[in-house]
Write a structure and sequence with these properties.
- The structure is a single chain.
- With 381 residues, the chain is an alpha/beta fold.
- The protein is 35% helix and 18% strand.
- The protein is built from 13 helices and 15 strands.
- The strands form three sheets. Strands 3-2-1-6-7-8-9 form a seven-stranded parallel sheet, sandwiched between helices. The protein has a six-stranded parallel sheet with strand order 12-11-10-13-14-15, sandwiched between helices. Strands 4-5 form a two-stranded antiparallel sheet.
- Strand 7, helix 4 and strand 8 form a beta-alpha-beta unit.
């Protein structure tokens, strides 16, 4: 992928987010360095039940706190969010361009789009895509989504699949851009040196499978425990689960019953977390969401990832890992058996993961695509 850095954004940039998760901070601080007038991020508090790790400030960008009012659970198709203080922030910051979450359920955002357009300033949407909608009031929800999307000057998708969904919904292809969703910087050091892996009769070393992320039901760590337990004893891995969350106690209880050799480390950060990536042979993300897969790839690890929002399809290929259907325990078990039974392949697959992390899946490339999208909508393309 082209690594040429596009010209900086001349002026002030504003970005609206419902919440500002901690993993986004490096990206926003990096993007701020390419904005001549600075970058300001407007975001509010999540619902308490979301348990999203947040930060209080950014290093390079400005962070302005919104007052979020939520209606229903965020997983409900009828969830709505109002962000108070949005227009006041625009009045104070006076952005020359604005990037908003491309989500019609955020009821304050259309007023911000109108405010910008009244001053002839462009607005880009940023989102996962426009997947099919089903269930009650689906036709009304599709209409509401399209009415919101068509008010925008361009759309930045997380993935190629998301971009295609925006185009299929009717948005002009020349105004749809892809900025691969990333949380990790481009690796500056070579991947860790790991010994060759060869299965032999006198080799009793167990391979290490690693999970890093929140311990929540939707992450399907229960499936990972069951899948490991169902493997032949000679290929069962050392399973290391890094993270914390509401499901931890239940998962530890399940592990004692199903796969007692599983290790729960709790949350780890910085050098402590790095040591787990270095010691692993395989990274597994069995459930929905989770951008730690990009960190794993930057450490030269092959990956097993459940399909989700389309981001995974851009990251995981036969050369560096396996994509499995979500919530499919037999598929997870089969792929684990395939990976752990032929360990000599894992090192070459990890090398391809590292190449992808260097050339494609990193926040530097993500910022470059944002700058290209901004330049394009400014020029009227």
């Amino acid at each position: 992928m082209d690594q040429i850095t596009p010209p900086p954004f001349i002026g002030r940039l504003g970005i609206q987010q419902r919440v500002l998760p901690a993993y986004r901070a490096p990206f926003f601080d990096l993007l701020a360095q390419s904005c001549s007038g600075g970058l300001s991020v407007f975001a509010g508090e999540p619902r308490p039940d979301e348990q999203i790790p947040r930060i209080e400030r950014l290093e390079k960008a400005q962070y302005v706190s919104a007052r979020n009012r939520h209606f229903l659970n965020v997983n409900s198709p009828f969830y709505q969010c109002w962000q108070f203080g949005l227009i006041e922030w625009l009045e104070a910051w006076q952005p020359d361009a604005l990037i908003v979450e491309a989500n019609p359920r955020y009821r304050s955002t259309p007023a911000a789009v109108r405010w910008m357009h009244a001053r002839n300033r462009p607005v880009l949407g940023w989102g996962l895509g426009a997947p099919p909608l089903y269930g009650p009031l689906a036709a009304w929800r599709r209409r509401a989504r399209w009415n919101f999307l068509k008010s925008l000057d361009g759309l930045i998708a997380y993935s190629q699949r998301g971009a295609q969904e925006y185009i299929q919904s009717g948005f002009p292809p020349q105004r749809v851009f892809v900025a691969p969703n990333a949380v990790a910087a481009r690796p500056l050091s070579p991947p860790p040196e790991r010994p060759p892996l060869r299965r032999s009769a006198n080799d009793d070393r167990r391979l290490t499978a690693l999970y890093v992320g929140r311990l929540q039901e939707r992450k399907r760590i229960d499936h990972l425990l069951y899948a490991c337990a169902a493997l032949p004893p000679e290929v069962q891995p050392r399973l290391v689960i890094v993270g914390d969350g509401p499901a931890r106690a239940a998962l530890e209880t399940l592990a004692r019953q199903v796969y007692p050799q599983a290790e729960f480390t709790g949350a780890r950060y910085g050098n402590e977390l790095e040591s787990y990536f270095v010691a692993a042979d395989l990274f597994v993300l069995p459930g929905s969401g989770g951008l730690a897969v990009q960190q794993a790839m930057s450490y030269g690890l092959p990956v097993i990832v459940a399909q989700g929002d389309g981001t995974q399809n851009d990251l995981v290929r036969p050369q560096n890992g396996w994509l499995i259907p979500p919530n499919d325990l037999p598929a997870l078990q089969a792929v684990l058996l395939q990976a752990l039974s032929a360990p000599e392949r894992l090192r070459s697959m990890g090398a391809e993961s590292y190449r992808i992390a260097v050339q494609e899946a990193n926040i530097e490339n993500m910022a470059a695509q944002f700058l290209r999208a901004l330049a394009s909508v400014r020029s009227g393309v």
